[in-house]
């Protein structure tokens, strides 16, 4: 129970993969009645992803990577209209807030769907409308107070709002726009430009995801570089399959964070552990461009000396249940989490897709604590703050908040 009450930070959650299975079933039933799909065909596929209290053996829930991506295609059939995108966004935020996630970095792939008159832009408007509709908790999803996004009036530090006699929960949300590896460079560029347009409503960065065996990541490199040059933060799905060439190239790009990092051979593993990125440069978006450019033109020694004190390693977003369910890692005991943890390499426990993998962030913390020991688990949650892509004042507030909670949980 303590893992539910402990404040947590979620940095790797895909919107559609986090949708409630109960909602997906309801949507499937509705589309079944309209004759768009055959409900009995999809029911078992969705149910496979639901938590089953009678399944002592979790084998039933195992999905290969390919099966998982087939499931995403089905989910997208069910969810991709504006009203549903709004609904699942609202529900996902409420679900994370209910288990005391105080900072959620939610990622989603903006989708164009001509049959629904949906553009990438209108898809994102529907997501943002979902954030606005959250009413059970206080939501902050925008740094500006321009009336576009509702902001938390009180900070995390004070319990001034009440809900049913209890202090109202508060959650910070920032968004990452995902590029799907199936997309073209042109479509990826559209996503990056959209992210720039939506900076005022909490979009802080870009993610590269989608089936790891599909497409070539170099296709997206110009879009990712453009994103970074424009001050967006970047995280990449890296090493879900053993493609060492791609893994090395991704690490050479120096993303601030990578997701999974499952299939790194020894030299890539070494590279990951040695790679440092200038955190000072990134802490403040306006200086971001300048320092990145400077580090190219000035000698590494000069810049290195200037920044050494505040450099940071590439943070690894760890999704334990996801890796096991997709058969990427055979069991928690052999998961690379242990190696990173031992080496004090920054890692962040995340859910990936809580609907699809029937997990929660609290469960991920419980698994880590059970397998690797309880001590330091609170520090793990606290340290995740340092890898958030939010503005510095939000990061500072989260730091203060976790420091305040240290006596209770640490
Ligand atoms: P969406 O972006 O539609 O909100 O969330 C679902 C999408 O996230 C999937 O279609 C896929 O592109 C991406 N995704 C979710 N989980 C994973 C994962 O474990 N690995 C990769 N590479 N992509 C994922």
Automatic annotation (TrEMBL):
Domain Adenosine deaminase stretches: 7-400
Annotated GO MF terms: adenosine deaminase activity; metal ion binding
Keywords: Hydrolase, Metal-binding, Nucleotide metabolism, Zinc
Gene Ontology biological process terms, A to Z: adenosine catabolic process; inosine biosynthetic process; nucleotide metabolic process
SUPFAM superfamilies, sorted: Metallo-dependent hydrolases
Catalysed reaction equations from the record: N(6)-methyl-AMP + H2O + H(+) = IMP + methylamine
InterPro entries (UniProt xref): A_deaminase_dom (IPR001365), Ado/ade_deaminase (IPR006330), Metal_Hydrolase (IPR032466)
Coiled-coil regions listed: none
Pfam families: A_deaminase
Domain of life of the native organism: Eukaryota
Record Gene3D superfamilies: Metal-dependent hydrolases
Co-factor requirement: Zn(2+)
Family: Belongs to the metallo-dependent hydrolases superfamily. Adenosine and AMP deaminases family.
Name this polypeptide is given: Adenosine deaminase domain-containing protein
Protein source organism: Carnegiea gigantea
The organism's taxonomic lineage, starting at the top: Eukaryota, Viridiplantae, Streptophyta, Embryophyta, Tracheophyta
């Amino acid at each position: 129970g303590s893992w539910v009450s402990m404040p947590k930070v979620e940095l790797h959650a895909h919107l559609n993969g986090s949708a409630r299975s109960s909602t997906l079933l309801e949507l499937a039933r509705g589309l079944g009645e309209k004759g768009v799909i055959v409900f009995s065909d999809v029911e078992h596929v969705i149910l496979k992803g639901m938590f089953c209290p009678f399944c002592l053996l979790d084998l039933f829930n195992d999905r290969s990577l390919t099966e998982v991506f087939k499931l995403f295609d089905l989910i997208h059939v069910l969810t991709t209209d504006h009203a549903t995108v709004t609904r699942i966004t609202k529900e996902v935020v409420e679900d994370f807030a209910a288990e005391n996630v105080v900072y959620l970095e939610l990622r989603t792939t903006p989708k164009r769907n001509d049959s629904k008159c949906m553009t990438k832009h209108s898809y994102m408007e529907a997501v943002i409308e979902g954030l606005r509709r959250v009413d059970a908790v206080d939501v902050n999803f925008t740094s500006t107070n321009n009336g576009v996004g509702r902001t938390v009036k009180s900070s995390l530090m004070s319990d001034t709002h009440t809900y049913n006699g209890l202090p109202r929960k508060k959650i910070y949300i920032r968004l990452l726009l995902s590029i799907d590896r199936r997309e073209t460079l042109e479509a990826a560029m559209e996503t990056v430009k959209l992210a720039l347009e939506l900076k005022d409503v909490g979009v802080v960065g870009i993610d590269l995801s989608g089936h790891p065996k599909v497409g070539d990541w170099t296709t997206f490199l110009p879009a990712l570089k453009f994103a970074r040059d424009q001050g967006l933060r970047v995280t990449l799905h890296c090493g879900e399959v053993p493609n060492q060439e791609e893994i090395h190239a991704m690490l050479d790009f120096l993303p601030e964070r990578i997701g999974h990092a499952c299939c790194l051979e020894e030299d890539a593993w070494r590279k990951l552990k040695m790679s440092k990125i200038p955190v000072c440069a990134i802490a403040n978006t306006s200086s971001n461009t300048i320092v990145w450019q400077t580090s190219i033109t000035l000698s590494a020694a000069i810049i290195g000396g200037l920044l050494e004190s505040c450099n940071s390693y590439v943070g690894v977003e760890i999704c334990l249940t996801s890796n096991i369910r997709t058969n990427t890692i055979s069991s928690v005991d052999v998961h690379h989490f242990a190696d990173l943890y031992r080496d004090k390499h920054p890692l962040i426990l995340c859910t990936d897709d809580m609907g699809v993998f029937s997990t929660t962030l609290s469960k991920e913390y419980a698994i880590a604590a059970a397998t690797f020991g309880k001590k330091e688990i609170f520090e793990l949650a606290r340290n995740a703050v340092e890898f958030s892509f939010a503005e510095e004042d939000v990061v500072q507030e989260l730091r203060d908040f976790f420091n305040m909670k240290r006596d209770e949980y640490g």
